[in-house]
Each structure stands twice: as structure tokens, then as C-alpha cells.
Amino acid sequence: MDVLYFAWVRERIGQPKDRIETTAATVRDLVEELRAREPRYEAAFADLDALRVAVDQELADFDAPLAGAREVAFFPPMTGG
Amino acid sequence: MDVRVQEEAFDLGVETSAFAARQTGMGAVVTFTGIVRDIEAGLDVMQIEHYPGMTEKALAKIASEAKERWSLGDVLVIHRHGALKADDLIMMVATAAPHRVDAFEAAEFLMDYLKSRAPFWKKEVTGAGQDWVAAKDEDEDALSRWE
Fold it and tell me: Are B29 and B106 within 8 A, CB to CB?
């Protein structure tokens, strides 16, 4: 699965993307896995209220299932326009 | 429907004229243009990041929804990314409709959704440092009137 990071999430983690093998059932489980990796992930995922998530390029919530998902992205609230 | 995500500048006059010229039977064209506003600290660069792939899908979805909700002939959305300067044009929307109310309302709807549902992030770079622009509560609240 590809895990993508944008804006300050990308900066805190220090890279735009990870390719990982995971058995996480939901986005929340994936976040727990990532948090356990290294302090920079812990820092990026410290406050989930400050984050948004997309599963296969559609906005989702943290309880969304990951079965069959190919791409998950984490980013702050969007500021388009 | 025409949705473009691009780094290059666009010409507002040329785009607006071309959009109006390709309509038939439409009584109204409304355009909105977003411009990089300078800030007190003096903006060196406004860096706009986006999520290639998702951005185009999200904009097309918002534009399709506008076409379902209002009687529209056509919709144009152009949104730039990359390094912009103060007074540069960031984005534009244009709507064409038989009557002006639909064109105005659809343009507002597009803008409200584009602000908080299209995956763009702005960073202000000044001599003093750089800061990601925080999303505003009122931008999120603005969506509630369309629900």
C-alpha cells in the first residue's frame, strides 16, 4: 500500500511517501502502526483532529476500512481557492 | 465541463471570453477569480501544494454536483499550484446558465467547496520564515448552507 503525506504532515515525517505492507483493518489501525515506527511519525500523528485522510483519493474518516485500498493519504485541512 | 489544474499562469480575459463564446442559449456568465493577497510581513512566495490525481477528481466531482443542483450550461474551473507571488491569479471559476441566479449561486457553491474539499495547501514564505495557511472555521461553516 502507498501511504502519502502532504503539507506539514510531509514535512514532519520528512518524506512524501511510504510503501508499506500492512494488515491494518482501518485507517485508525494504520495510524497506530505508523506512530509506533519512529518519533517523527508520532509527531505527525499526535493530533488526529488536525488531520484529514483520503483512501484511494476519496475523503474518508479514520474508521474507514482499508480492505482492498491501494493508496492512503494524510494531510491537514485543505486550503484551496 | 472544463477542469484544469496547472502550474502555468492563465489569462482571465482570454479564458472568460472563450468560455462565454462557446455557450449557446445561456443568458448569464458569472466568473470568480482568486488572487494572491500580500500579507503584513511581506510575501515572498505563496507555495501551493496539491495531491495530483485526487485534485482533478475532487474538482470534477464538485463541478458535477453544481451541474446537478442548478440549471447550468457549463462550468470552468482553473486552479494553479507551485510558486506564486502577491497579486498573481491563483484560480478562477466560471458558470454559464440561462438565468443569473443559477450562475451566481453555482459559482458560490463551487468556491465554498473548493476551499475546503479540494486537496490544495498554501504556504506563505516571507523573509521571517514560512507558515502553512490554517483552514478557517468559517470556510467549513460556509458548507452548511448547501446541505
Answer: no
pLDDT tens for each residue of A18-58: 999 999 999 999 999 999 999 999 999 999 999 999 999 99
A81 with B133: Cβ contact below 8 A: no
For chain B, state the CA radius of gyration.
16
**Shortest CA distance to B106 belongs to which of B49, B64, B52, B55?**
B64
B131 touches chain A (CB under 8 A): no
Which of the residues B36, B65, B81, B120 would you substitute to probe the A interface, choosing the one with the greatest number of A C-beta atoms within 10 Å?
B120
Q: For the whole model, what pTM was predicted?
A: 0.95
Phi, psi (deg, nearest 5) at residue B62:
-65, -40
Cell numbers linked to B6: 496547472
Residues from chain A that touch B114, judged by Cβ atoms under 8 A, are 80-81
A16, A22 Cβ separation under 8 angstroms: no
Residues of chain B positioned with their CB less than 8 A from the CB of A4: 51
ipTM: 0.95
Rounded to whole angstroms, how far apart are CA atoms B94 and B103? 8
Q: Are strands A58-60 and A52-55 parallel, antiparallel or unpaired?
A: antiparallel
